Amino acid sequence: MADNATGRIIKGVGGLYTVRLDSGDIQCRARGSFRHTNITPLVGDVVKIEADDKGNSVIDEILDRKNSLIRPPLANIDYVFVTMAAASPKPMLDMTDKLCAILEHNGITPIIVIGKCELDREAAQNIKDVYSKAGYEVFVLSCETGEGIDEIKEFVSVSLSGKISAFAGASGVGKSTLMNKLFPELELGTGEVSRKVERGKHTTRTVTLFEVCSGGGYLADTPGFSMLDFDRFDFFDIENLPNVFPEIHECVGLCRYTKCSHTKEDGCAVLKKVRSGQMAKSRHDSYIELYNTLKNKPKWNK
After folding, report:
1. 3-class secondary structure, 175
2. How far apart are CA 260 and CA 142, in angstroms?
């Protein structure tokens, strides 16, 4: 291995990391000095590898992160496929909105996926309208009938090159089934954790990056998690809340009052948008819920 090689961590188990270099994958540990910092290498990190005084390859430096998650432990995510079912289970749009807000705040692009459309086509279309108006890429599909699968496959092949993506959604919405359709080579278990991921009896869940398209496009194998926990979730100030709702961000500066909260004021461009149908009321309701949460949050917890 050449000195100062740079690669990406694609797996980490018990302090042993698999790093993908141009020359191939190597396994190594982090330099002991990391124990004296608050930074732990995460899957997804781009790192520099050097030889220690015994000639062993070690992670010597973690390059700047775009973002990071606590559960699952993952860094530098570009896309999250926010997956829900049109029915069975009933979609929870408020939780979807909260997740999208978290993603937006951390510079991650949400992709909305509405599965099981064969169960309730009207509901699927209504949900699509909600998030299309918000400016999100939305896919309506059915793993049962095959509807919409080609469209999302095309998106994956074009957009995921050089990116890291993950799937998130409540249990039972069909994440594993869809991932099998898109990435059959991964052989993901349906209704169970991936067979490819090692899980120790007393260890936290392991995250593995699988290369799924040319150009270093990776999928994080994180089956089963329903919500992403960010190290900077609701710690952002209330003033930043409009920025994590794209359709509200578009209205900043267009309201009658400079310090408009976009909740109830006369002359609010956002309320006008809701009344005209350009923004879904459910999205505005979620905004108000988060606004009240942040408004009532003690300043020392922000």
Report:
1. helix
2. 41
SS3 state of residue 38: coil
Token pair in block for residue 241: 């809340």
- Nearest by Cα to 144 from 103, 109, 180: 180
How many other C-beta atoms lie within 10 A of the C-beta of residue 230? 19
Which amino acid does the sequence have at 36?
Answer: H
Radius of gyration of the chain (CA): 21
CB within 8 Å of 259: residues ≥ 6 apart? none
Nearest CA to 50 out of 33, 36, 23, 30 is that of 30
Q: Which pTM does this prediction carry? A: 0.88
**Dihedral angle sign, alpha carbons of residues 172, 139, 105, 251:** negative
The count of residues in the chain is 302
Angle between helices 281-295 and 121-133 (to 10 degrees): 60
Q: Tens digits of per-residue pLDDT, 241-259?
A: 999 999 999 999 999 999 9
H/E stretch holding 220 reads strand 217-221
Which amino acid appears at position 129 of this protein? D
**3-state SS assignment for residue 285:** helix
Residues of the chain above pLDDT 70, percent: 87
Q: How far is CA 16 from CA 36, 69, 186, 207, in A?
A: 18, 19, 22, 13
- Among left, alpha and beta (phi > 0; psi -120 to 50; other), residue 121 is alpha
- CA 89 to chain CA centroid, Å, is 21
Residues 6+ apart with CB under 8 A from 40: 30, 34, 73
DSSP state of 62: E
Return the amino acid letter for 167: F
Distance CA 167, CA 200 (A): 22
Burial track 93-110 (b if 16+ CB lie within 10 A, e otherwise): bebbbbbbbbbbbbebbb
Q: What is the pLDDT of residue 299?
A: 66
